[in-house]
Every structure is written in C-alpha cells, then in structure tokens.
Amino acid sequence: AAVGIRREVDSTGRMIVRQIKKGVRDFSFGRILGEGSYSTVYLATDRQTLKEYAIKVLEKRHIIKEKKIKYVNIEKNTLNRLTEHPGIVRLYYTFQDETSLYYVLDLCNGGELLGVLKKTGTFDVDCVRFYGAQILDAIDYMHSRGVIHRDLKPENVLLDDQMHVKITDFGTAKLLSDPQESNDTGSVNRSEIQGRP
C-alpha cells in the first residue's frame, strides 16, 4: 500500500501531518476515462472520503514485455517532483498488486484540451490567452524544478471542472537536477537540454 499524507489541525490549533496507507481496496472503480499504450485510466472513488480520482492502472506484464519500465519510473519521479503547482496533474498515491501498478491522480472532468479545440474548431484571442497563460505558467514551474516535458501537445493538457489546465503524461520527460533541492544557483545547464523542433 502507498503512504500518503493528510494535513490536519489538532485540538490545540496546530497543523499536524498524518500518514495514510492506501491500496486497491480503498477505492471503488468506475468507468474508463481513457486508454494509453500501456495503461488504462479509471474514474475511482475513495471509499472513505468519497473523493473522486483518476486512477491510472499499468499492467506489469505489458510494461516489462514492451520495455517501458524506464518511462513508468520517469513519470512517477516527475509527478512526485511537481506536486506544488495547480497546472500539473497531481499524483496522490501509488501502490501495486501482483499484476498492476496504480497511480492515483487528479480527476480532470473537463477532458483534453484537444477535445475542446475539436469541438470549437478554433479558439478566440481571449481563449488563447486564458489557456496559453496557464500552460506557460506550468512550463515555467516545470523548468524551475528541472523538468522538461518533451511531449507537450493538446491531448496531454487536461482540463479540470472549471476548465483550468492540468498538464499530464510525463513518461518521456527529462529530469535535470532540481534547483530547489541543491545548493547551486538554480541555473539550468543548457547542455543538458536536447530537443528537436
């Protein structure tokens, strides 16, 4: 089972942190929200709190067969690093059973930005500003934490209930040293960043 944390205020008014263990039995699984090349994402409800999440289920056998272990670890490590920004899908818990790995993530009921774009055809200037500012803010935060996404596209930009951006799918991300966890100046070594237009 995974260990998560819950912040609470005790009887004296002090903030305390409690550890919470979660596993498959703690969630009620619902409909499929989406399918990827090596995962399926389900709507799930925490049986105790009734909070809804998206749970990404990754089949271990398929991950090993397709040699995707590296990408699964990159995604988990990246999401664990990027927990403090509202524009990035949050990873709450991870756990596993004999056959699968489970990532408990933010539920984004607004769907993909791509779906909204297909429905509207084009975005007007105000809409471009609205989404563009949020995406750029999230990218700035990622870069400040030493993360290069490398696969940012409309289908990897999810929308929450209020149609705000949540960037997802960090399986191909590049993790550089995290300036917030080191004693250096926080500058990114540009020689570490490689990419093609």
TrEMBL record:
It comes from the Eukaryota. Its EC number is 2.7.11.1. GO terms for molecular function: ATP binding; protein serine/threonine kinase activity. SUPFAM superfamilies: Protein kinase-like (PK-like). Residues 27-197 form the Protein kinase domain. Keywords: ATP-binding, Kinase, Nucleotide-binding, Serine/threonine-protein kinase, Transferase. One of its GO terms (biological process) is intracellular signal transduction. ATP binds at K56. Residues 177-197 are annotated as: Disordered. It comes from Photinus pyralis (Common eastern firefly). Residues 179-197 have a biased composition (Polar residues). Belongs to the protein kinase superfamily. The keyword Hydrolase does not apply. It catalyses: L-seryl-[protein] + ATP = O-phospho-L-seryl-[protein] + ADP + H(+); L-threonyl-[protein] + ATP = O-phospho-L-threonyl-[protein] + ADP + H(+). This is non-specific serine/threonine protein kinase.
